[in-house]
Amino acid sequence: MAPPPSTVVSPVVALVIRVLTLVFLLVSVIVIATTTATSGAGPTEVKIKFDDFYAYRYMLAAGVIGIGYTLLQTAFTIFQVSTGNRLGGDGFTLLDFYGDKALSYMLATGAAAGFGLTVDLNRGSGSDSDTKSFLNKANAAAALLFIAFIFSAVSSVFSSFSLPKRT
Amino acid sequence: MAPPPSTVVSPVVALVIRVLTLVFLLVSVIVIATTTATSGAGPTEVKIKFDDFYAYRYMLAAGVIGIGYTLLQTAFTIFQVSTGNRLGGDGFTLLDFYGDKALSYMLATGAAAGFGLTVDLNRGSGSDSDTKSFLNKANAAAALLFIAFIFSAVSSVFSSFSLPKRT
């Protein structure tokens, strides 16, 4: 028998989860991209930005790729909600499955890389309040990315259950 | 119709993937747990160990939990290969699905946290060769954990395809 290419959860629920992912990704990217700090004073003054750290660069990249993918998926889901039809068939379901899985791994690793660096830098950093505030904002961006990851993991569970049963 | 509780891939393939996950997890845990370095000399000498860094502690924790879970799954798969029966039914399939998914996220974040810290510490570290060697070993442990993650992600794809189709 050929299983119907329908999804398991209501498309409206799927849409809400996508939009939530998108919102948290957007805020995370804005926070990490705009955060700066000044270390030292006078001639030894050094500007610190996210791109001084590879972990934060990866975090930003994961967030930006996530925004692109989630925007696309949101558009498809809006199409599905409004017309009642899903684009494509089983092939599309498979693409959703792998795409959602890959994205959720990317967001998880992005958040983890950010946390991994920030937590230990924070313990090592002295009383320089500007550096502390920079690290706190980086921490906040990682936390937001982590919340976006949770939503993308939910999407990934949904798309797993929508897989056609292969026998 | 009630879908059969069979898995999609051959149990032997599933077993090989589990054993590979286990091997890489074991080596990763041994490398990170045994790595030490001595910084400075004489009275200012400081011993550095993995548990001085939260990111490496998390990496070790993820590896150890991964070993426990993968050992259990390996035992179940050996049982399946030798008897031809899978323990439980659809309930077990669901447990596999969520367990494999959770484990692969844990290993991915463990490796990413390790890389996130190590890459930037490595750039900041001076010419102290003992510290450099410590960071290189931590990097190797993260890389091994990442390979274990790849295998666990494959297991997770298998268990997703084995999900009963819900209609």
Automatic annotation (TrEMBL), chains A, B:
Record key words, sorted: Cell membrane, Membrane, Transmembrane, Transmembrane helix
Segments passing through the bilayer: 12-37, 58-82, 102-119, 140-161
Annotated family: Belongs to the Casparian strip membrane proteins (CASP) family.
Main localisation: membrane
Membrane disposition: Multi-pass membrane protein
Casparian strip membrane protein domain segment(s): 12-151
Stored InterPro entries: CASP_dom
GO cellular component terms given for this protein: plasma membrane
Protein name (record): CASP-like protein
Pfam families linked to this entry: CASP_dom
Location in the cell: Cell membrane
